[in-house]
Write a structure and sequence with these properties.
The chain is of the alpha/beta class. The protein has 2 domains: about 20-40 and about 265-360, Alpha-Beta Complex (Aspartate Aminotransferase, domain 1), CATH 3.90.1150; about 40-260, Aspartate Aminotransferase, domain 2. The protein is built from 13 helices and 13 strands. The strands form 3 sheets. The protein has a 7-stranded mixed β-sheet with strand order 2-8-7-6-5-3-4, sandwiched between helices. A 4-stranded antiparallel β-sheet has the order 9-10-13-12. Strand 5 (about 150-155), helix 7 (about 165-175) and strand 6 form a beta-alpha-beta unit. The radius of gyration is 20 Å and the shape is globular.
Length: about 350
């Protein structure tokens, strides 16, 4: 039944579907690219101490966290904004720098769902360019820029494919982007890709039409705390402060993020485990004849050939207590995404997949 209070663009939205949870004795969730080691131990310790101050409103400008980020990455505090995750920042960027339905957000088919949802819920125009061999088609994106294009969204590494474009490719791309178009460079998985010498670190660019976003949800293990941050021109960051909610991230989230930034040992352990887990998965999938894409992140995309096969595979694994992510909502209906886990989780997943896949 239609309601006079609900705009058409809201009625037509499909709610975001997160990785599933199950009520089973043995469950392994490798669907959301989380850190299977859990949160940074230093973050947990700091949060326990900070809980007693939770009756206070959080610092709306997250001054301590901004200061630590500026110091760590040698950038200016005035060019940093913190919020409740990258999703929130994407929403604020669209809110601040577009204002009418024909304003266009240009991105790829087969990339992070958050940009689709945030564009459509604000009744903006969404234009998607097909991937080229599961890589972002930067040339194709440039060809689709129009007078209505206001924002281009790039994820590097890309989620859910794990593919990466290089420093040279990015710089060549930016040379051809008109100055009236803002580019968002989402680096949620930067830590995993940064060992590649060709990776274009977004924090090293000071361009008037570029905003780089990062998150504490992945390698730092703070997904439940919801902390993301953006780096960009001071003028644009100042405008984002006008539209962001005033009291975010939460007090304990800010404390956790500050402590996590100092936990290099945890990051090293995380990266070591990620490498070991993905190697075990790749060996298993190769033996089973499952096609996987090369990754520069903490997950693999399995290419199963058809939507039906991918959906059935995901469901059969789910029935066995293994939660994976069918990537149909991302625009890759034949894909299933699996992230790295602890060695115990990895072995459990391999056993389930080795039983399920031959039955398809």
């Amino acid at each position: 039944m239609e309601s006079p209070f609900i705009p058409n663009h809201i009625q037509n939205l499909k709610p975001y579907l997160a990785g599933k949870n199950l009520d089973k004795t043995k469950i392994v969730k490798l669907a959301s690219n989380e850190n299977s080691l859990g949160p940074s131990p230093k973050a947990l310790e700091a949060v326990q101490i900070a809980l007693k101050n939770s009756f206070r409103y959080p610092d709306p400008r997250a001054i301590k966290l901004v200061s630590k980020l500026a110091q760590k990455y040698k950038i200016q505090p005035s060019q940093i904004l913190c919020a409740s995750g990258t999703d929130a920042i994407l929403s604020y960027i669209i809110m601040a720098f577009t204002h009418q339905p024909q304003d266009e957000i240009l991105t790829s088919e087969g990339t992070f769902i958050g940009i689709y949802v945030n564009t459509l819920k604000q009744n903006r125009s969404l234009k998607r360019v097909a991937l080229h061999d599961f890589q972002l088609d930067l040339t194709g994106l440039l060809q689709q820029i129009s007078k209505n294009t206001k924002i281009i969204y790039l994820a590097n590494p890309n989620n859910p494919t794990g593919s990466m474009f290089t420093k040279k490719e990015f710089e060549d791309f930016m040379k051809h982007v008109p100055p009236y178009v803002l580019v968002i460079l989402d680096e949620a998985y930067e830590v995993y890709a940064s060992s590649n010498p060709t990776y274009p670190n977004g924090l090293t660019y000071d361009m008037p039409n570029l905003i780089t976003t990062r998150t504490f949800s992945k390698v730092y293990g703070l997904a439940g705390f919801r902390v993301g941050w953006a780096y960009g021109p001071q003028r644009l960051i100042s405008e984002l402060y006008k539209v962001k909610l005033p009291f975010e991230p939460s007090h304990i989230a800010q404390v956790a993020a500050c402590a996590a930034l100092e936990d290099q040992a945890f990051l090293d352990e995380t990266q070591k485990l990620n490498t070991a887990s993905l190697k075990l998965f790749q060996r298993c999938f190769q033996n089973l004849g499952i096609t996987t894409l090369e990754t520069t992140s903490n997950f693999l995309l399995l290419h199963l050939g058809s939507h039906q096969k991918a959906a059935t595979f995901t469901q059969k694994c789910l029935d066995q207590g293994l939660i994976l992510r069918h990537t149909d909502a991302f625009g890759i209906p034949e894909g299933v995404r699996i992230n790295s886990g602890t060695l115990e989780e990895t072995q459990f997943a391999i056993e389930i997949i080795s039983k399920v896949y031959p039955t398809l």
